[in-house]
Amino acid sequence: MRRVLVALKERRQAAHLAAVTTALVAPGDEVDVVHVIETGSHQDARADVTMVEGLLELLRARGLVARGEVTPLSGGGVAGRLAEWAERTVGTGAERW
After folding, report:
1. Cα distances (Å, whole numbers) of residue 95 to 15, 32, 44, 69, 90
2. Is 56:45 a contact under the CB 8 Å cutoff?
3. Fold of 3-89
4. Nearest 5 degrees, angle CA 82-CA 33-CA 58?
């Protein structure tokens, strides 16, 4: 079983990354979707959450174990935030949506 991290930069990438991800993994593999956002309006944040939830549904419909998170940008930039996320979740079995 494989575990894959999909890091979204922009909402418009979601459909393409879903297609690429499902081509690379097999049913039962685990996919973590992380979208790091700059702090902004609550309306934008809601749209980001909705986008990630939609992507998770699509991946789950293809037999994948999918978890996701929308997380704010930190002082370490996107790479730093993804590293923090990975350190916090990998191997912990942490449950998200």
Report:
1. 24, 11, 24, 10, 11
2. no
3. Rossmann fold (3.40.50)
4. 170
Distances 24 to 27, 55, 77, 94 between C-alpha atoms, Å: 10, 16, 27, 24
Tens digit of each residue's pLDDT (9 = 90 or more) over 26-83 = 999 999 998 888 776 566 788 889 999 999 999 999 999 999 988 887 777 888 888 8
What are the domain boundaries of the chain?
A: 3-89
- Contact criterion met (CB below 8 Å) for 59 and 29: no
Q: Tell whether pTM > 0.70.
A: yes
CA 46 to mean position of chain CA atoms? 15
Measure the CA–CA gap between 46 and 65, rounded to whole angstroms.
23
| Strand spans (E) along the chain | 3-8, 30-37, 65-72
Question: How many other C-beta atoms can be found within 10 angstroms of the C-beta atom of residue 84?
Answer: 14
